């Protein structure tokens, strides 16, 4: 019995057609069955889409379609061998192209994404980087992101001290097994933890692992530079980000009743750097050209690192204990610097 095609909704049909044309350009001479298998539709839907493409185009200056204004295919190959060969493309070469610098910036971002454990299958990212390289107006500069793992002409620029830990996390995700590690929290306490890794994220130069902690029986956030003696176990992962009992917030840090409240002033352009620390409903006002707001931090040690990462753009206003902690830490750094010069 012939396979019966289910009609696509208008929005799905548009998305399908927009995806089909570039796929056919990359797979010149693909068969109808290959295209159907790739897009998860029936061969009949592929044939209907190809016939629609063949009567699509852009009218010329006379607002009427002339020779060369429509897409075209090799009709003999299509009708006799069920093979799709595009013989005329419309407005493809006229579309704006990324400059070499723009393509290099996008490739660097994709290279960063390829290093994240949740993107363990990096074939699609590598394919997109290759297309950006080919489609730019000029050859992009070779770029690299520390800790990223890529192939081809794009190489890493320097070894990352966190790369071994990231590699272990990636391997545990690929194998579907748990991690064991020693973790030192912001108070300096060290504990052995068993983790189901869920997601790796970064804020500025710091990397964080979010995972299900079997010691705490909840999702916890671990800064990678505080992880040591990590090993991969043979225990299968029991919790995943898609599980109904796992709540993985969009923000990296969530407030808790034990958090400390700190008032700071920050220049408006630096607000995105502290947005993850600002609780919902925080009183935010403008004060002499700066934004005054409230942060919640688990410990003053974390506050010191945060303020040190924004020299000249953030100032601790209150409480006095927070100001004193940051001041003492800065003075200790100056004293050490002077002792080594």
From TrEMBL:
Q: Which InterPro entries match?
A: CBASS_pafABC_assoc_protein, PafC-like, PafC_HTH, WCX_dom, WYL_dom
* Pfam families linked to this entry: HTH_PafC, WCX, WYL
Q: Can you say what this protein is called?
A: Helix-turn-helix transcriptional regulator
Question: What residues does the WYL domain cover?
Answer: 165-230
Q: Give the lineage.
A: Bacteria, Bacillati, Actinomycetota, Actinomycetes, Micrococcales
Species this protein is from: Lysinimonas soli
Q: Which residues form the PafC HTH domain?
A: 12-134
List each copy of the WCX domain by range.
Answer: 259-332
């Amino acid at each position: 019995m012939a396979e019966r095609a289910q009609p696509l909704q208008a929005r799905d049909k548009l998305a399908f057609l927009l995806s089909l044309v570039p796929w056919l350009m990359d797979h010149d001479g693909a068969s109808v069955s290959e295209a159907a298998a790739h897009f998860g539709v029936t061969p009949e839907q592929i044939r209907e889409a190809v016939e629609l493409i063949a009567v699509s185009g852009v009218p010329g200056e006379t607002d009427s379609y002339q020779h060369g204004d429509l897409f075209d295919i090799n009709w003999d190959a299509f009708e006799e061998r069920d093979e799709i060969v595009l013989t005329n493309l419309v407005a493809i070469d006229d579309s704006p192209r990324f400059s070499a610098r723009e393509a290099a910036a996008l490739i660097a971002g994709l290279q960063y994404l390829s290093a994240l454990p949740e993107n363990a299958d990096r074939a699609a990212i590598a394919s997109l980087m290759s297309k950006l390289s080919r489609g730019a107006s000029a050859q992009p500069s070779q770029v690299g992101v520390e800790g990223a793992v890529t192939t081809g002409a794009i190489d890493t620029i320097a070894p990352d001290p966190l790369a071994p830990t990231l590699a272990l996390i990636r391997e545990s995700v690929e194998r579907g097994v748990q991690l064991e590690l020693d973790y030192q929290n912001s108070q300096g306490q060290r504990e052995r933890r068993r983790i189901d890794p869920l997601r790796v994220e970064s804020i500025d130069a710091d990397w964080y692992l979010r995972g299900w902690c079997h010691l705490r029986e909840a999702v916890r956030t671990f800064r990678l530079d505080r992880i040591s003696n990590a090993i991969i176990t043979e225990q299968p992962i029991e919790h995943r980000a898609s599980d109904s009992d796992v709540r993985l917030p969009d923000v990296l840090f969530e407030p808790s009743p034990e958090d400390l409240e700190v008032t700071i002033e920050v220049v408006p352009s630096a607000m995105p750097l502290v947005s993850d620390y600002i609780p919902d409903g925080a009183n935010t006002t403008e004060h002499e050209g700066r934004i005054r707001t409230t942060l919640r931090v688990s410990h003053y040690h974390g506050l010191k690192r945060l303020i040190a990462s924004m020299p000249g753009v953030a100032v601790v206003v209150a409480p006095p204990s927070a100001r004193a902690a940051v001041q003492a830490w800065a003075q200790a750094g100056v004293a050490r610097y002077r002792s080594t010069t």
